[in-house]
Amino acid sequence: VKVFKRIQEFRDRGAYMDGDPRYYGRKFRNVDKREQVELWTEKEYRNLVRASRAGVAVPTPLMQKENVLFMRFLGEGGWPAPQLREVEVKKGSKIWTALYCQTIIAIRRLYHCARLVHADLSEYNILVCPMTLVENAMDKSDEAKDSLQIVLIDFGQAVDRKHPSALHLLERDLSLVRRFFAKKAIVALSDEECQEFVVKEVEIEEEESEDENESEASEMEKEGECTDVNMGGHEDDENKASGWRHSVKGWDDERDLEWLETRLGELKRDSKAATSQDEH
Length: 280
What we know:
Blueprint: E1 2-3, H1 14-18, H2 33-53, E2 61-65, E3 68-71, E4 75-76, E5 79-80, H3 94-113, E6 116-117, E7 126-130, E8 148-152, E9 159-160, H4 166-182, H5 191-199, H6 206-224, H7 253-279
Antiparallel strand pairs: 1-3, 2-3, 4-5, 6-9, 7-8
Helix pairs in contact: 3-4, 3-5, 3-7, 4-5
């Protein structure tokens, strides 16, 4: 259970609301403080629903009422799952590489399938827990049930990718993620290459592409039906009959993961070769 309180910091969160195409009309700063808190709570709930339905590993959203958000608990024995920064694993371990890959794949899926940018991602907003506890775990096989899975949390500030600052916020997220994992002595993509990988569109056949364009046009119409400051409805109330509108044809996490692991292997070999030459 997450309870949002009437705190002054909500005055500084307008940038995440005003530029989001789902929220327009009055400026966030002009809304009374109580409504600001409730709008922020509602926004986090909507973002979590989007992400969850898009297959991103997030706490499963259950319901939202006024300034209270209910989610599925992630942890064991009453103890919450640790933040990424709290995980105690030896530097250079393959576990860190696996967690890094999961994080980048999750950011990419969030961007394309949920059409969101987290906008405040760091080692503080990523949990790590056994895959068996995560609804959208990357591997749901019995063999992987005890393997570690990252979970993205704290989605209040997440913005639609049509937000004017979306790419800047994505760049900031990727930079913070890279800096954390670099401290764990593993190879990571540069910020530029990582952003290119995240935003790269899925290559699909021409016929499928035409269907996707029609879906995009339909989605824009539906977004326009519920974008006033009072919201006019939640994500979970929209398109129940037609299914999740942000599904991406041809999406394949395993294919993306294979590319990412191969690329990291190349970078690691290049790094070793450069080190060897320096020593000689």
